[in-house]
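Saturday, quiet lab. Running sequence design on the structure tokens for the scaffold JK sent over.
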């Protein structure tokens, strides 16, 4: 099993964690919120478990908010509603589906004295205090390395993504960097799957039905597309294609077990939400984001790491899945 566990920020990040664990007495009205999109998919239910675990340990309230579909505008509206609660939340975690759309809402919350930390998907130009999540450039480079190995340095690739989402753009750049080393593998098409699995299914089906020479590989930069790609390939009896997914949702793991998806790059949403809530709790009770001489006390980025899941270790992940 390939693991990545780099904690950017070192002692600064670790000190925040332990201060949060032994913070002062919590008030009965103290609450925190996580705002995201696609709240019911396995990725975010895993994050919700991390949020709940940290809240229980700290003795605070925390909830998940946002649309059940991929809807950045509805996410922003939900964020503003959370921000307007009385009493105000003690802190907000947010995964910014559209970083620019969320920017002014995040800035307004910070200006109002509500700490905001981004997890999973960043809004880097906003005044959020820090980002906790995956090193997405590196995740893309890992995927690109897999493509190089499986395609033996030559081939045609279709990529499924959501343009404009910072974390996905970074993953795509990581793939491009990895593939540029030899230059024999080309990304021929980038498909906007709009956060909707049926779009990925229909696009893959159109590629297969068109006939002619099919792409050698399919890459998904978010969680929902590759199970749809795998479904189409199996229905159409298309074999020998390299499919590289993102995240360890149950359907992706099952397609790896069947041999249709080659591998997936799993993130740690539980860790993002768990650690994020502890950071917010410390910020709420200790306030200071600047030390002597104005030096920042917070790391800009905490990397929660990735795990490469393939046929060699997928059984472990499936056996750990409570839905299995």
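Result came back. Writing it out in full:
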């Amino acid at each position: 099993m390939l693991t990545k566990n780099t904690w950017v920020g070192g002692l600064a990040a670790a000190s925040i964690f332990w201060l949060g664990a032994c913070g002062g007495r919590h008030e009965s009205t103290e609450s925190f919120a996580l705002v995201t999109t696609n709240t019911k998919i396995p990725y975010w239910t895993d994050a919700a478990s991390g949020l709940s675990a940290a809240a229980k340990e700290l003795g605070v309230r925390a909830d998940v908010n946002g649309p059940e579909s991929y809807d950045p505008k509805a996410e922003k509206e939900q964020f503003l509603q959370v921000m307007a609660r009385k009493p105000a939340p003690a802190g907000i975690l947010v995964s910014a589906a559209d970083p620019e759309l969320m920017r002014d809402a995040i800035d307004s919350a910070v200006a109002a004295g509500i700490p905001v930390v981004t997890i999973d998907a960043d809004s880097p130009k906003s005044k959020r205090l820090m980002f906790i999540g995956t090193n997405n450039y590196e995740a893309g480079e890992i995927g690109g390395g897999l493509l190089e190995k499986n395609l033996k340095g030559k081939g045609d690739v279709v990529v499924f993504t959501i343009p404009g989402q910072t974390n996905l753009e970074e993953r795509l750049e990581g793939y491009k960097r990895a593939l540029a080393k030899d230059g024999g593998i080309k990304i021929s098409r980038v498909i906007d799957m709009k956060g909707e699995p049926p779009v990925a299914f229909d696009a893959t089906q159109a590629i297969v039905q068109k006939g002619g020479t099919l792409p050698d590989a399919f890459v998904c930069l978010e969680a929902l597309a590759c199970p749809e790609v795998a479904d189409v390939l199996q229905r159409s009896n298309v074999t020998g294609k390299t499919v590289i997914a993102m995240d360890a949702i149950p359907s992706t793991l099952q397609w790896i077990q069947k041999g249709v998806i080659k591998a997936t790059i799993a993130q740690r949403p539980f860790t993002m939400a768990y650690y994020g809530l502890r950071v917010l709790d410390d910020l709420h009770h200790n306030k200071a984001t600047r030390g002597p001489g104005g030096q920042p006390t917070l790391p800009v980025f905490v990397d929660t790491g990735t795990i490469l899941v393939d046929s060699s270790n997928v059984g472990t992940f499936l056996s750990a899945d409570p839905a299995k």
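Notes for JK: The longest strand covers residues 185-192. The chain has eleven helices and 13 strands. Ask whether to fix the surface positions before the next round.
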